[in-house]
Design goal:
The complex is a heterodimer of chains A (366) and B (157). With 366 residues, chain A is an alpha/beta fold. In chain A, 29% of the residues lie in helices and 16% in strands. Chain B contains two helices and 14 strands. In chain B, the strands form four sheets. Chain B has a six-stranded antiparallel sheet with strand order 1-4-5-8-9-14, with no helix packed on it. A four-stranded antiparallel sheet of chain B has the order 6-7-10-13. The chains are: A alpha/beta (366), B mainly beta (157).
Amino acid sequence: MQKTHFSVIMVIGAFAISSTFVAPLHAQPLSFATSVQSAAGLAKAGSAAPAGVAKAGAAAANAKIPPVRRNDETLLKFSPLRSAKAPSKTTSSPQYQTWMSAEIADAWNAGFKGQGATITVVDDFSSSRFITGNLGTGSQSLRHGEWTRLEASMIAPSATMASHDFNSGRTVALAKTGLNIANLSYGMFAKSGYSLSQISWSAQETSLINYATNGSAVVSKAAGNDAVAVGASNKAGNTDYLNVALVGTQSALFVGALDRNGTTTQKANLASYSNFAGSDAAVQRQFLTVGVRGDLTNLYGTSFAAPIVSGYAAVLGSKFTTATPTQIANRLLDTARTDTINGYSASIHGRGEASIARALAPSSID
Amino acid sequence: MEIGSGSARSELVKRISYGGYELDDGTPVNFSDWYTPALPDLRAVFLTEVADGVGITWGLSTGERGKKYRIAPALHLGLILQREVFPNAVISLSVSTKLGGRLSERTCMADYGIFGRAEVNCRLAASELSPEDTLAYLLKGRARDESRVALRFSWRF
């Protein structure tokens, strides 16, 4: 009996994604660029859903509500199941780029390159939407996930990179050994006002939330680009319920964007678009910021903040090889800098600006 | 014969004393605080002729110590053989060694916050190595590694 009930919910969720709840919503990208090639994907959003499904989705207040929107319009396409790409290890020697914090070059020089860690990038690897940017390796047009994966791999060049297409909805697999990091540069949006118990997650998000809850992976989540507090409703009346679900979990980090990599003499400001920590102390405890130099890369948004923190987590894990994901996440939080941020406030910047150099260094020595 | 200060071991320590790093709150750690001796390694070495063309060198060095290292005192011993091979031409063979004088480096206890405390190499606590791996790189040096054999030929003309 229970099994049947579960199946029905899944079907409702699956069809609702492509119909009932998606079509009326506006995209809430966690990244944006000044030029985007192709905006395909909306076509299926308006396709008719089976009558029974539409009813189920719009019915009683107690019905499970699927969160419906990831980070860009391409996700409206409900793709067939797709295998994650085979893990690959970046072997090229790291190259410092001006969009990076200078601290990362010091970390590389000292040998920290993310070896032993696996960064699983859950993102768009299959749509026909491309973003033009330049991370210092030449101008390219890549899918959103290809950009975030590239960025994380540039920060942690010796980490194993794995890709999980978020159109699949399937359980996100973790590496069996070593430190696991999941990079989530997307949001799951639905109309504001639902409780988490009303959300029917796919196996994909269920697995990610579980990983953050039980501490089996560092979950680096882009905070969002609505310039609102994490978990709050945006101007369109939508909420990123993936953010809401990750609040208070032991190994999730919300990553906001600063307009630069701050120093004590040239302090950074929160990027105008970035979501902020807000008044919830639980969010403040999990909130980090890093510089996102869209002015140099043409890649703006907290989508490009989260991979930096994912890379930092991998780099940190290459030193503390027996540390748990929760310890890695907390170390990044505990060692974040507040003296590099203009007008630092916990309600805006959370714990401050992530500092890989300080995370690697001891707190005291004698 | 010779009075001076320093050794290859104390030079090694001096070189590393220029480094440093920051703790996780930005507090600077300067290696000079740990690797600068209160008194340098002083030595006095004498030559005693025991036969025509044969001498022995002998002497002592005091060693030195800083907060995180120690160079033990050493006994200097040597032998010099000298012979005139033709008028105004001298060939000499000298052999010298040191007994004692071991260089050893002390470890530190580093607190890595949530990762806990660990015994580490003080200099490498903020390096790429895991805390336990830093211990493999503690300075070790034996004075006898500075032993020398020298063959000299001089001709005045």
